[in-house]
Write a structure and sequence with these properties.
Number of helices: 19
Radius of gyration: 21 Å
Number of strands: 0
Largest sheet: none
Strand content: under 5%
Shape: globular
Helix content: over 70%
Length: 387
């Protein structure tokens, strides 16, 4: 009779790689759900069910747009047609979750986002550990899970899905599974426009893996990567068909949110907080804008320092830089805090710095959960900041 040998240490090691990110992720989600539920109950409307009130805040802000798209698609007669400013994959996930579980769009969004977030943390921990070691991997998990706006990882927002898909893209790229990586990257493109910024990194990594040669094998791999911009263009063509505007997304961003190309903001990223201070000085009601510009500057400095010291492989730094630049080039530093937390490269660079400063990490173990609670209350309880 054959005897099956069980490697207990290997099993423990594999479980250990899942246990920490899962535990931290669950802890951050429990804290988030409790805080948001309390806010929701305090703001409960007459006749609104208790369960509905507890999750209602998660469906606010951009979540309203995703729900409209899930219900009506890109109907140009709905909400002045500005729904075309948003990408299609997450609304489709909302609709599928609602139909599969027979729940509301908000509940479905919370379940989908939270699940994607936990999976993303597990894979992110594994990816970072393989390149920068287990200490940095643990630090990035904590930083991402308890970032001040990390409550959005359970909201009807694209943050969790986008984080998961971009991490999966690089995990597959590390295994040299180019077709699978491009599939995940294509889904990222359909989740958020910044997903298109994966293309240069995919090309760079393919060139490096091919011995830095520009021969026929490299050209064939670039053709595979071309599926990402092809899908991006195809979605734009679909919106053109629906709206008659070849630049429907850009037009909606401009009309609905005042966004437009601005190279000066990109060049000003290293000192972006000065822009926030200037605006707040002249418009006191926009004092929260300093928060956006401070993080925009932080992401820029982390990327500049990371590139200077070569802290990460070039394809990661390239993606991180382009994913920060694209939304800024659209003409504003607004929402940069949440964009940055979803661009795992900048959080990775932050984790590298924190890993070498144990005292700072001990402080962050307390400060970050507190900041998460405070920011969630400010956003959902008082409406004092637009995430």
């Amino acid at each position: 009779m054959a005897v099956v040998s069980i490697d207990v240490s290997a099993i423990a090691s594999r479980w250990g790689g899942w246990r920490y990110p899962l535990a931290v992720g669950v802890l951050s989600r429990l804290l988030t759900l409790v805080v948001v539920a309390v806010v929701g109950l305090l703001r409960r409307e007459p006749g609104q069910g208790i369960g509905s009130a507890m999750v209602a805040p998660f469906g606010g802000w951009d979540g309203i747009w995703y729900q409209r798209i899930a219900l009506y698609g890109y109907d140009p007669t709905v909400a002045h047609g500005n729904g075309v400013a948003f990408s299609p994959l997450f609304p489709e996930l909302l609709r599928l979750t609602r139909d599969a579980l027979s729940v509301s769009l908000v509940v479905g969004g919370v379940l989908a986002s939270t699940t994607c977030f936990l999976l993303a943390l597990i894979l992110l921990h594994r990816l970072v550990s393989s390149i920068s070691g287990p200490t940095v991997a643990r630090r990035i998990v904590w930083l991402v899970a308890f970032f001040p706006t990390a409550f959005l990882f359970s909201a009807v927002y694209t943050e969790s899905l986008y984080l998961l898909l971009t991490v999966v893209t690089f995990v597959l790229l590390e295994r040299r599974w180019l077709v699978a990586a491009c599939t995940a990257g294509t889904l990222a493109v359909l989740t958020r426009p910044t997903g298109i910024m994966l293309v240069p990194s995919l090309i760079l990594r393919t060139w490096k893996d091919g011995g830095r040669r520009l021969g026929l094998p490299f050209v064939l791999r670039v053709i595979v990567i071309a599926v990402l911009p092809a899908v991006y263009i195809a979605f734009g063509a679909y919106l053109y068909f629906r709206t008659g505007d070849p630049f429907a997304t850009q037009s909606a961003q401009s009309a609905g949110w005042g966004r437009g190309a601005n190279l000066l903001l990109v060049l000003g990223l290293p000192v972006a907080v000065l822009n926030g201070a200037f605006v707040a000085t002249h418009e006191v009601e926009r004092i929260s804008y300093i928060f956006d510009t401070a993080f925009a500057m932080t992401w820029a400095l982390l990327l500049i320092e990371g590139a200077w010291r070569r802290r990460l492989p070039g394809e990661y730094l390239l993606y991180g830089a382009l994913a920060v630049i694209l939304p800024v080039f659209a003409g504003t530093y607004l929402a940069l805090p949440r964009y940055g937390m979803g661009i795992f490269v900048v959080m990775w660079l932050a984790a590298i710095h924190v890993a070498s400063r144990p005292r700072l990490m001990r402080f962050l173990y307390v400060a970050m959960p507190v900041s998460l609670v405070v920011t969630a209350i400010v956003v959902y309880g008082f409406g004092g900041y637009v995430p």
